[in-house]
Amino acid sequence: MTRKPPGELPPERARLVSALRELKTATGLSLAALATKTTFSKSSWERYLNGKTLPPRRAVQELCRLAGEREDRCLALWELAESEWSGRAAAPRPDEDTGTDASARAGLPETETGRPAGRGRLLAVLASVCAMAAGGLSVALVLLAGQSGAPRPSSPPTTAPAPRCRAATCEGRSPMTMKCGLAPLTLASHRTSSGAHLELRYSDTCEAGWARMWSTRIGDRLELAGAAGGRPHSAEITDGVAAQSYVFTPMTEARPGTTVRACFRPATGAARECFEARVRFRPRS
Asked: Looking at the record, which segments are called Disordered (predicted)?
């Protein structure tokens, strides 16, 4: 079977790779350190995290363990990617429910949508990643055309992890690593002239905001204005996997009443596009 280079990864595999990268970030470990704490080598992890090779199921489990995250939803994403990799998802039988169980286990909101890559297939959208559903690292998945009418199995309720920062202490930190990515608010959305999708996101619990982008190109850059006119926080698309995934900026303090502003700088050199939103006061329950 011919393997595609990272820039041409199918969406199922690209979302899994994005999720694994978020998990690695949460561990704080280098590739060498990761190799010493798992049963897989440094070169193996390099291939897994760059989409060159599909990781074994056990590798996903070990990475989840090191990141302190639940593994069930990560494994659901892995099952979708493995089905695509092996070719089992290419020609589903007419009576086959392709991936519904795996998608249901991911338990992600249906407000995040994606485009089907093939008839009756289910795609993971976002990126990521499984980590948000498994403890705060962000991923989104939808059920697309071809879904059967059977009820989806529900995931057992879990206690949401406490955020690791608040307001000023979140400045410049990752919303996923700091557990601020659970049930965030979307303050504003914008689609650029190049077709990229942008959003300003906000966490009431963390009192911090960030921006994210997807449907991007290598070299695209998103900048989020820092608190009180400080240095902006930025995220850049560095490879094909990132271009197919959700990419987030670090956070900035954003208390109710303040304005969050982000600017997109396309790789083409075209004029930057900016948008902003004001954080509204919301009564606490």
From this structure: 86-116
